Amino acid sequence: MKSRLFLTFFLILILPNCVGVSSKGLFGTGVSIAFDPRSVGTQIDDSIMQKNLSARILLLDKAYFLSVKSKVLDGRIFLTGKVDVAEEKLKLTKLAWETEGVRSVRNDIKIKDEFNLQQSAKDLLITSQLRTALVLSKSIKAANYQIDTYKKKIYIYGIAMNADEKELVINEAKEILDVEDVIASIILVENLRIQKN
Known about the structure:
CATH architecture of the largest domain: 2-Layer Sandwich
Low-confidence stretches: 15-34
Strand content: 15-25%
Strand order of the largest sheet: 1-2-3
Radius of gyration: 21 Å
Number of strands: 6
Number of domains: 2
Mean pLDDT: 78
Structural class: alpha/beta
Order of helices and strands: HHHEEHEHEEHE
Number of helices: 6
CATH topology of the largest domain: Histidine-containing Protein, Chain: A
CATH class of the largest domain: Alpha Beta
């Protein structure tokens, strides 16, 4: 009797996850396997990236198990949830960009931290100065970079056409007044999983 009850309970938990119908997920839409526009290979790659990223997020801090969610679609990473301070959000974005095969990262994580207008204004000024320097440089493809600044630390994510461009971006960031640190997660085009011909 106990084993039959246990088996029934187990099947109730497991079987709904095996059904190939569309479902609502973390981002409001689910995709039936039969209607998924991604190739099977892309779905497998996304699944591997998802598991890799989730494991690395948990290794960073076990508290993220409940507070941070991630989703990978066609090499694009989406992050949602809540963290205590902005620095945690930036660390998670950096971690996502360092995932092998990533094409882009969208970080919609909210911060519980108190808002500091003066610090936010300084960080915004630093970000604007770097963005302007990248746009004005003829040797840098500025559209390939995302810039975040928190407490005078610049976080740069993106794709460089070559090692010289990567070094140039980092040097531009270091030259900005009041910058305390530059944390760069810049991937070279030659290291991308799928390159545009």
